[in-house]
Amino acid sequence: MYLTPQRILLAGATGLTGEHLLDRLLNEPTVSRVLAPTRRPLAEHPRLDNPQGELMTLLPLLSGPLDTAFCCLGTTIKQAGSQEAFRAIDHDLVLAVAQRARALGARHFLVISALGADPRSSVFYNRVKGEMEASLRAMDWPQLTIARPSLLLGERSETRLAEQLAAPLARLIPGKYRGIQACTLARALWRLALEEQDGVRVVESDELRRLGR
Q1: Strand partners, 199
Q2: Residue 28 CB: number of other CB atoms within 10 A?
Q3: Where is the signal peptide (predicted)?
Q4: What does the alpha-carbon distance between residue 61 and residue 48 come to, in Å, rounded to a whole number?
Q5: What is the C-alpha separation between 124 and 157, in angstroms, rounded?
Q6: Are 7 and 69 in contact (CB under 8 A)?
Q7: Please, are residues 35 and 70 in contact by the beta-carbon 8 Å criterion?
Q8: Is residue 16 within 8 Å of 156, Cβ to Cβ?
Q9: 95 — phi, psi (to 5°)?
Q10: What residues contact 202, with CB distance under 8 A and at least 6 apart?
Q11: Contact predicate 55/97, CB 8 Å
Q12: How much is the pLDDT for 91?
């Protein structure tokens, strides 16, 4: 059985995956409204609502109703500047988006986490992602979809040297550890948004690649 999301919140619309997902959403005739708050303005579209500013400041001002919310937020410790700043984005801000989306009526929340997310991990990055997942589960969403992609591949506006070096190898690794194109992940997220399945679904990178073909 399938749902047809009509009114959608997209957090992270200017990111690598978010850009691809926004383009897909705006080209879906079944989508009546995309609410995409960003710091810099997006190209105008008749079905796009694009409030601009810092996301945490904008959240209380967002209006609904919503059916579905996508969260494509994510950074690196290097970009954020510290572990605390990284956690503020990849944990705290994600939860704030989820809470606001739920308050506006959304029943399905789809979030990009990471391969290896585990709240008990000794790796800080994986631990924060795992804690974020656990916090979302505790919100008792009617439908929660957690996507765990491996290394994201695609053209970024900023340079991430480590990812550039790892990308050739990531394309060759088998199974869920193989890198995934951001456009493939965006297609997979949209397909997952159309599925009606109560409770929590965790989707690993190999399944995301299959869904996004």
Answers
A1: 143
A2: 17
A3: none
A4: 16
A5: 25
A6: no
A7: no
A8: yes
A9: -65, -40
A10: 133, 146, 148
A11: yes
A12: 98
Q: Summarize pLDDT for 47-80 with one digit per residue, the tens.
A: 999 999 999 999 999 998 999 999 999 999 999 9
Let me know the angle formed at the C-alpha of 207 by 149 and 153, rounded to the nearest 5 degrees: 35
The pLDDT-based confidence of 37 (bands split at 50, 70, 90) is: very high
CB 180 within 8 A of CB 197: no
Does pTM top 0.85 for this prediction?
yes
CA–CA–CA angle 41, 45, 49 (5° rounding): 60
Which one of 3.40.50.300, 3.30.70.270, 3.40.50.720, 1.25.40.180 gives the CATH number of domain 7-211?
3.40.50.720
Q: Which two tokens stand for residue 8?
A: 């959608």
Tokens of 158: 């900023």
DSSP of the chain, one letter per residue?
-B----EEEEE-TTSHHHHHHHHHHHT-TT--EEE--BSSPPPP-TTEE--BS-HHHHGGG-----SEEEE-----HHHHSSHHHHHIIIIIIHHHHHHHHHHTT--EEEEE--TT--TT-SSHHHHHHHHHHHHHHHT--SEEEEEE-SSEES--SS--HHHHHHHHHHTTS-GGGS-EEHHHHHHHHHHHHTB---EEEEEEHHHHHHHT-
Mean pLDDT of the chain: 90
- Find how far residue 94's CA is from the centre of its chain: 9
